[in-house]
Structures are given as structure tokens and as C-alpha cells.
């Protein structure tokens, strides 16, 4: 887009696994990435100890639509949202 690797768009905050998260989208990539976008799952509370995963994939029947699957683990509890 604008070739500014420091610019990002942040989603609204959402809750998974009892923690607040957002998504950071870098349309021009992040760091030394060239010709790519970068997407990060961001924990909004500093110092929290959480294991998280995020999987982005196109829908099989509609490849122009993407699905985000999030998971978060705090202590022994697994939480998944689809």
C-alpha cells in the first residue's frame, strides 16, 4: 500500500479466555518483510501469562473470505473461538 512498515491498523478489543486481545494488521508488512502483509494477535494486558494461537485461512468455498480461529490457554483451561 503506502510502503510504511511502521503503520498498522488495530482491531477493536475482544475477549477470549478471560483476556482482552486485538489484532494488529500491517498492510505493508512489518520489519524486513517485503511484498507481504503482517498480522499479529496482541494481548492488551502487559505481564499476563497466556499461551495463544491464531490461525488465518481462506474459507474453502469462498477463498476471498478469510476465517480467524483463536485459542488461548490460561493455567489448565483451554478456550477456543471459531
Automatic annotation (TrEMBL):
This is MATH domain-containing protein. It comes from the Eukaryota. InterPro entries: MATH/TRAF_dom (IPR002083), TRAF-like (IPR008974). The lineage of its organism: Eukaryota, Viridiplantae, Streptophyta, Embryophyta, Tracheophyta. Residues 1-82 form the MATH domain.
Amino acid at each position: 500500500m503506502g510502503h510504511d512498515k511502521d503503520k498498522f491498523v488495530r482491531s477493536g478489543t475482544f475477549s477470549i479466555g478471560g483476556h482482552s486481545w486485538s489484532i494488529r494488521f500491517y498492510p505493508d508488512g512489518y520489519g524486513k518483510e517485503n511484498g507481504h502483509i503482517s498480522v499479529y494477535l496482541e494481548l492488551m494486558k502487559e505481564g499476563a501469562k497466556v499461551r495463544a494461537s491464531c490461525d488465518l485461512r481462506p474459507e474453502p468455498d469462498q477463498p476471498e473470505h478469510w476465517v480467524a480461529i483463536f485459542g488461548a490457554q490460561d493455567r489448565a483451561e483451554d478456550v477456543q473461538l471459531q
